[in-house]
Design brief:
3 strands; alpha+beta
Length: 100
């Protein structure tokens, strides 16, 4: 379940993802498997080859891509989430969700 984002932000991410653009959406999140993390960044792209290449370029295993059409995505959490958001110039998400 996603918290801390607007419907407009979700729709923008969905549109970009469905269009085959690598897109980032960070939101508050709770998963009992990872109680130490309070946010997740969904890196979406409907072009599965492009998303797999993106994963490999960031030393991430494409086997963990959630292949949920029309919004396939890779979930980033923890230190790699911060690192990759910073590399991608997503400073607004880093500040907004207190990841910096």
């Amino acid at each position: 379940m996603a918290f801390g984002i607007t419907r407009q932000e979700l729709r923008a991410w969905q549109q970009q993802t469905a269009a085959g653009v690598i897109s980032f959406l960070t939101h508050y999140w709770y998963d009992p498997r990872f109680p130490q993390f309070t946010t997740v960044t969904k890196v979406g792209c409907s072009d599965l080859n492009r998303l797999a290449e993106w994963c490999l370029a960031h030393d991430l295993d494409p086997a963990y891509i959630h292949r949920r059409m029309p919004y396939p995505h890779f979930d980033l959490i923890g230190p790699r989430q911060r690192e990759i958001l910073r590399q991608a110039g997503q400073e607004d998400q880093l500040h907004r969700f207190k990841l910096d």
